[in-house]
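Blackboard transcription, Thursday session:
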Amino acid sequence: MKRFFTNITKYYKYAVYQAKAELKSEIVNSYLNWMWWFLDPICYMLIYTFIVEIVFRTTEPYFPVFVFLGLTAWDLFNRIVMGSVKTVKNNVGIINKVYVPKYVFLFSKSLVFLFKYIISFIITIALMIIFQVPVTLQVLNFPLILICLYTVAFGCGTILLHFGVFVEDLSNITNILFRLLFYFSGIFYNISTRIPKPFATIMLIGNPIAFCINQFRKIFIYGSAPNYIGLLLWFLVGCGLTAIGVKLIHKYESSYAKVV
Amino acid sequence: MKNSVNAIEVKNLHIKYRGLKKMSIKQSIAKFKFNRVEVFEALKGISFNVEKGKIVGIIGKNGSGKSTLLRAVAGIFAPDEGKIDLKGNSVSLMSIGAGFQNKLTGFENIILSGLLLGFSEEEIRKRIPEIIEFSELGDFIYKPVRTYSSGMYSKLAFSITAILETDIMLIDEVLSVGDIHFKEKSGKKMQEIIKDENKTVLIVSHSMSTIKDLCDEVIWINDGLLMERGDTKTVTKHYEEYMKGLDKK
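(Written on the board underneath:)
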């Protein structure tokens, strides 16, 4: 674990520069591209609002904000973890030239996604103003929830990064699992009102994404305090996953270059 | 008389490619049942030392493990057995198909490569004009690397490693980069590096004239084993005789 932190500090500059360059190239290569950072979540929000409010005729207070909080959190998790499966393959050129701790690539990528998340967060605030959601001091808990979600995503990412090298069709499996996870995370419906009692509680506590999304909604829409103990526990789980993933990578990374 | 300090010490180096083929999930489940692992040994126990400031050529026929050896010294592969000690020297590997990111510009790629080689950003920025000038890319340096021709690509790769000098430089078949003009220039640059007594260089090449021109010593590897090590003239002569012998068969 000590090696992990020395490596992260050593390669921190590289990761940040890489992330910046990548974001910049997205803007340069297409003039509309950075608009997609905004447009993508907004369009999905509109689609789900249409389906849920008009087709299924359920009413959830401040539904667009409700969906938006769920979607953006999901996107952050999904992008970090799904991207990790192919991280090593996408960086073969560098891996064959110089030694780099492989999670540095994941770290750098996660910074890109974190940046995009922050951008979409600005829209959340705009939506809250438009729909006149009452704001309480609870919103200050936002960084805590974000850290928790990020740690869990990064932990899952490091583990999948390792297995993604050796198992070629891993991305097919993760695709299916993530589709399942998407519907089980209550992104466009409210788990606690739509699902019968014992299952709802299990889903809200046992699924880190559903849990984090629920905490976001608590502080932004309902103005109640987040579940601090739950946050701490999931944060610790995230740290544990990261420790396992990093250990795996340290042990096997010297053979990655032989495989890809 | 300078006292000879070793820059690279390689002891009994084994590198194995252990049936680490990529597999699908179905295969990996099947693998638990028949635990049959193919092992291909690319290097079968090689030991040598390289003194600081020496230029050493590595020769051998295709598939004899030369590139594997360089990658192991660069730290990309960990040895399966044996030890590689670089005495704390920094190392860089120059090989065909350098690790650039196609989406990013040449400029950004220079900085990223430099950061990975362990240079600070200020240091790289100081050297960047020199790199751009040496690579002769001009304004292309601000364009994404995917727009480069293969010659431009290799020229940039060579320039980065040649200007951002590390203590140990590993060169894998890239001395014949670019047009005649650039070849001459890179040859000159190599001569300069070679004169510098602090730089240690390992060169892998199939061009005997390059090896004869540049190297102080030559290591001949055959099928993962060290065949001969010695001064350039003798070893290249033996090697050429051996290769001619293969032709006759």
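Lecturer's comment: The longest strand of chain B covers residues 6-18.
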